[in-house]
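Lest this sound abstract, we think one record worth quoting, the chain in one-letter code, the fold tokenised, each line plainly labelled:

>
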Amino acid sequence: MGESRLSFFGVSGEDEKVYRHVLRRPRSTLPELCHTLDLEPAEALPRLRRLRSLGLVRLAAGGRIAPAHPETAVARLSRADSTGGDPDRNSDRFARGARELLASLRAEAAAGEPGAAAERPGVELVNDAAEIRDRVVDWAFQACEEVLSLTPWHAMPAAHLAFIRPIALRCLRRGLRCRVVVPAACLEHPPTADYLAELARHGARIRLVADATERLLMADHRIALLPARGDDLDHGALVVTEPGILAGLTGLFERAWAVAAPYPGPAGLADTERRVLVAMCSGSLDETGARTVGVSVRTYRRRVAELMRLLGAGNRAQAALLARDRGWI
């Protein structure tokens, strides 16, 4: 791919030099960057703005320029490029290029200033709200298997819903398993109830508890975020990667999950629809199910299709699993 590996994703060689410099020296400030790369501020600032628009750098506390982790950078560039209309984007060449780029960026970070590439501590305190949000975006990009969420709020703030909704839906569309535990009172708050219903339609597994005191986000059982103070991550977050602590946090979530009640089906589900659902989940033939419910086979199949759409299921087996998990039957 040549010297400018990021050109594979449409990033100029000049901008790549800035990103790679910040990878090597993640504590850099604008004056330090200009001095090292022999740039004038008027040259450096447009490059930083372009990198920031791509999600590759951000301005952290103290004027420090913080780089996105290599994994996050490649994920963001791949996602940004996926709508470019280039048929080569799904090719083996593209996948190979992305892997080569990731290896190159990891090597760049590892070759940085002493201590810059050292592993983060097992428990890290992050106070900057923008950095905390970036961390949430990071783990959402990097998660491969399952996302867990435990929330104590009876009503999710509008700002939180606006931030977390696209992230949660993106995880679900990528095929990740998502399990969510919330207080039952959330269903009395229309914006929160609408959000939960949308997650459920896209395949999230949701359960309800009478009350909760902990706030927890976890990805793949290998990284967790919990509040440093109170129950709001924006006021300070602990980023946990220590395996022993993660095991304890996983146990905390699983205990809450085990005692929580299933997420209810829609209030408007009529008795006929419930009987169709039971018949469908029994695995009986459509003709048998239609006779049991007392409708024609055509009507039965139409209502099965409507229920599958309501559940967000791709087939009947998945619909049966989702219906049982949500307590619809």
